[in-house]
Fold each of these.
Amino acid sequence: FDQVLLLASSGGTAMWSGFTFLVGFVIVFRTSQAHGRYWDALNDTHKMLAEWFDAASSLAAFSHCSKAAVCEVDYFLYTVIRFFSMLSACALQELSDVGDHKTWGLLTLDASAVDIDSLAALDGSLCRVELLYQWIQQ
């Protein structure tokens, strides 16, 4: 009986403090890792959107030097800018934690100017970002 009291009085508290230190360390470490990953993902998302904005701006700047008719250049620009708008919205929506992804959950520039068949194909696609990216490249 004396050995049980000795173990409980001296070793029990040391084991409990070791255990609480280990649990506290793990919680702080994992929280720090999660916080770092969150900020990395946020920075990468902002970088992605900035790169797409730069690409759209470059297309707009270079298209003004085109020898095509002004109305054709304007139609090209209006279409490409709408595609970039839909690309950004679809990418952000894919990153969200919403279970059911809808194409029009986020605001886009006048998507009604895109033909109905293309919008139906986009709505039915599971890879909306890749599809819009391919449309922009064409």
Amino acid sequence: MVKRSLSLLKRVFVTIPKLSPTHTRCKIKQWTVPTNTDVTCYDPVIILKCTPDVISNGYRKYETHEPLMIVEAHDEGKLIIYEEFANAAGTGAEEDSSAWLDVGQVIGEIHDDDDDVTETNEWIWQAYTHD
């Protein structure tokens, strides 16, 4: 019989990541997996539309460029998207209906499939351009 150690039970808060030193806000464009889905390392979980400040002035395509970024989880467990953000993604139409969210805003969590979570950590992620 295998018994899980309590030290392995953890919860990770999923936040809007700070994608550059100057980055301040973004919008949720699309969740790539639904809530209550088990995710593993390198699973893409969210596409974000970022404010122009994510890229330094001299490197933007144009002054008001709002790049899309795809973010991968590097934590394993069940992704729980908080209800107020689960349907926050834009409609895909020209007008984006989602709200701007500040870097650090908690939008969900990843945790072991156990109610007795004993440890809370920052989430580990990797992001790439998605234009």
